[in-house]
């Protein structure tokens, strides 16, 4: 996908990876603004194309008492404010076909969750908005099978599709990243590695997903070495208090160092 098709995306000529980053969920306006401002400062420093990410609602919860959002309209308005204040594109995930047209009024990229990526009506509805569509590879799907999901977007009259790998189920409570899938999926669309969700440990008996954030740098480095087009990283000023997915989130204080290392690796890889 031509990154220049995404409105407000900066540094597209830097030959760097692009970054989808932000909190798992929009918890409020102040936190969204603070996180966006910090990420923007870092990505401008290293000339990384940046798309701010935040879920306007969390529909895929293990327990009924888990945080699902602050209200759809309120969260979408915050995403719009982030885009307007910092002049950056935004991405949010949708869960039902009727979410597509609504969310498209506020964000630049619509994301299809991994566990819903085979839902044809949902993918088509997202594609028909004309927005870029980020297709997260199902934890249960092969890299090769994602070509058909990309084709659904194209057949709906939309050329703006990207694929995001977020790990493959390995046993009941773990995920692995099979880097053999990166070159395969790059044949079909721009390919992103979701670093933080790949380190989730789902299906815990407590009903609260675990994670291994200490491995974020390892997975991110491997993604850059293997020529992913972009990275997806959820980050927060205080992951332990995040209302969703805090167990696998990157503490934002580590983001600058990580982006510096990854940018230097990308420069080296570009020489080859």
From TrEMBL:
Gene3D superfamilies: Aldolase class I (3.20.20.70). Keywords: Cytoplasm, Transferase. Residues 13-269 form the DAHP synthetase I/KDSA domain. It catalyses: D-arabinose 5-phosphate + phosphoenolpyruvate + H2O = 3-deoxy-alpha-D-manno-2-octulosonate-8-phosphate + phosphate. Pathway: Bacterial outer membrane biogenesis; lipopolysaccharide biosynthesis; Carbohydrate biosynthesis; 3-deoxy-D-manno-octulosonate biosynthesis; 3-deoxy-D-manno-octulosonate from D-ribulose 5-phosphate: step 2/3. It is found in: Cytoplasm. One of its GO terms (molecular function) is 3-deoxy-8-phosphooctulonate synthase activity. GO terms for biological process: lipopolysaccharide biosynthetic process. The keyword Transferase applies. Its EC number is 2.5.1.55. One of its GO terms (cellular component) is cytoplasm. Its main location: cytoplasm. PANTHER family: PHOSPHO-2-DEHYDRO-3-DEOXYHEPTONATE ALDOLASE. Belongs to the KdsA family. NCBIfam families: KDO8P_synth, PRK05198.1. This is 3-deoxy-8-phosphooctulonate synthase. It comes from Psychroflexus halocasei.
């Amino acid at each position: 996908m031509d990154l220049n098709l995404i409105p407000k995306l900066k540094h597209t000529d830097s030959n760097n990876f692009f970054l989808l980053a932000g909190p798992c969920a929009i918890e409020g306006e102040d936190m969204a603004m603070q996180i966006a401002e910090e990420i923007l400062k870092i990505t401008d420093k290293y000339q990384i194309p940046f798309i701010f990410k935040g879920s306007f609602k969390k529909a895929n919860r293990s327990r009924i008492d888990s945080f699902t959002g602050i209200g759809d309209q309120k969260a979408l308005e915050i995403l719009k404010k982030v885009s307007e204040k910092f002049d950056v594109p935004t991405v949010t995930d949708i869960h039902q076909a009727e979410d597509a047209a609504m969310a498209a009024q506020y964000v630049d990229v619509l994301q299809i969750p991994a566990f819903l990526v085979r839902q044809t009506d949902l993918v088509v509805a997202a594609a028909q908005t004309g927005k870029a569509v980020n297709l997260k590879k199902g934890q249960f799907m092969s890299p090769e099978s994602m070509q058909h999901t990309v084709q659904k977007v194209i057949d709906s009259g939309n050329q703006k599709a990207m694929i995001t790998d977020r790990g493959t189920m390995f046993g009941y409570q773990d995920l692995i990243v099979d880097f053999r899938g990166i070159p395969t999926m790059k044949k079909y669309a721009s390919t992103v590695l979701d670093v933080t969700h790949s380190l989730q440990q789902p299906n815990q008996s407590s009903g609260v997903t675990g994670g291994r954030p200490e491995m974020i740098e390892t997975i991110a480095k491997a993604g850059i070495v293997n020529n992913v087009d972009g990275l997806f990283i959820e980050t927060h000023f205080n992951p332990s208090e995040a209302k969703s997915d805090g167990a696998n989130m990157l503490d934002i204080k580590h983001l600058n160092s990580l982006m510096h290392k990854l940018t230097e690796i990308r420069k080296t890889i570009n020489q080859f």
